[in-house]
Design goal:
single chain; alpha+beta; TATA-Binding Protein; 6-stranded antiparallel β-sheet; 13 helices; 8 strands; about 50% helix
């Protein structure tokens, strides 16, 4: 009946009134676009509608450029896909030629560098800086070893600074045994007339045979001690690898630079004196090493010692690898992996010590 119809109409109006505030639609009025009340958010529809409008001229411009025949390079491959088949074929044919040119040029440049440009520049540089390390050895009396080293190693530090050599004073576990001073130097192949090892060995010999300097002397720049009286006989013993003996030429040395010496000899292997030296020095020399003994007045011994050292220069007279004295030196500046090996030795020693103790560690 009419009452029911009016009720239905009222319900429809009520629902419409409830939905009306939630509608996000923009109400257009005569004065322009009006935002719904209570919604501060901007309407983005106009911005989205403008993007296609901006792209359209770009597409039209691209079509105009293709139609006009302009061949400006594209930034990507997309325009090439739209090109005519004839134009695309021409582009494919041209592309390999353009790509192959740079490698060909590089290859030619590389060949030229190998043939002449590189070698004249690198060869002198390599020869100029290439060095050879030599290792010389001289016996030091046990009572002079501490003097050669100096308090806190200051004498050796001074010798290193003056001569440019490195020094190692090897010792054995035997009490009051002689020591071996190892002198190492690196010299350029391009300067065969200069050998730093001569100065290094000479300084060890002078320190071990001079009168001791006063205890209050400046150890950072220590003076040389007084030389022994000329009437006194001096002795120098140099250790030489067996493979170096041939070029040492002792007979010529004795008749030449060592003519004023009382004797210059290589101790015979198996002789009592040679065996005594090997027993005293033990593991810090090779069983095949030879001992050259120079005896005479101070000046004569020093002159012969200088020439002998020149003949032990590794650039002209290196020992075989098995007789290299560096193999006998256990020091970080000589032995590769020194600290790693030392750490392992310490670990093994702790392991042995723990096994020797009781179960409770005491």
């Amino acid at each position: 009946g009419p009452a029911r119809t009016d009720r239905s109409i009222d319900m429809v109006r009520t629902k419409a009134a409830q939905k009306k505030p939630k509608a996000p639609k923009v109400t257009k009025v005569a004065g322009g676009t009006k935002k719904p009340p209570g919604r501060p958010r901007k309407v983005k529809e106009p911005v989205q509608e403008e993007e296609p409008a901006e792209d359209a001229p770009a597409d039209d411009q691209a079509d105009d450029e293709k139609g006009s025949g302009r061949s400006e390079p594209a930034e990507d491959a997309t325009p090439m896909d739209d090109a005519d088949p004839v134009e695309r074929k021409a582009t494919d044919d041209d592309a390999p030629a353009v790509k192959e040119d740079p490698p060909a040029a590089d290859g030619e440049a590389g060949d030229k560098t190998k043939e002449g440009d590189d070698e004249p520049n690198l060869q002198p540089e390599t020869v100029l800086h290439e060095t050879v390390r030599s290792c010389l050895r001289i016996v030091v009396p046990s009572d002079k070893a501490g003097y050669v080293i100096g308090p806190r190693g200051k004498i050796v530090a001074h010798m290193r600074k003056v001569s440019g050599c490195k020094f190692h004073l090897q010792e054995t576990s035997k009490t009051h045994a002689m020591r071996v001073a190892v002198v190492m130097c690196s010299d350029k192949k391009s300067e065969p007339e200069s050998f730093q090892g001569v100065r290094g060995v000479e300084m060890v010999h002078l320190r071990s045979t001079e009168e001791m300097i006063p205890k209050d002397a400046d150890l950072n720049d220590p003076p040389m001690g007084a030389r022994p009286d000329e009437t006194q006989t001096q002795r120098a013993r140099v250790i030489v690898a067996a493979s170096q003996m041939e070029k040492v030429d002792l007979s010529e040395l004795a008749s030449g630079a060592g003519a004023d010496c009382e004797k210059i000899v290589a101790l015979e292997s198996g002789s009592e004196e040679c065996e005594a030296l090997h027993r005293a020095l033990g593991s810090i020399v090779f069983p095949t090493d030879r001992f050259i003994e120079i005896v005479g007045k101070d000046a004569a011994v020093r002159a012969a010692l200088t020439v002998l050292m020149m003949r032990l220069d590794y650039r002209a007279n290196p020992p075989i690898a098995a007789e290299d004295p560096l193999l006998l030196i256990d020091a970080p500046d000589v032995k590769e992996g020194y600290f790693r090996d030392k750490k392992e030795k310490d670990r093994l020693q702790r392991h042995r010590d723990s096994h020797g103790a009781g179960r409770d560690g005491r």
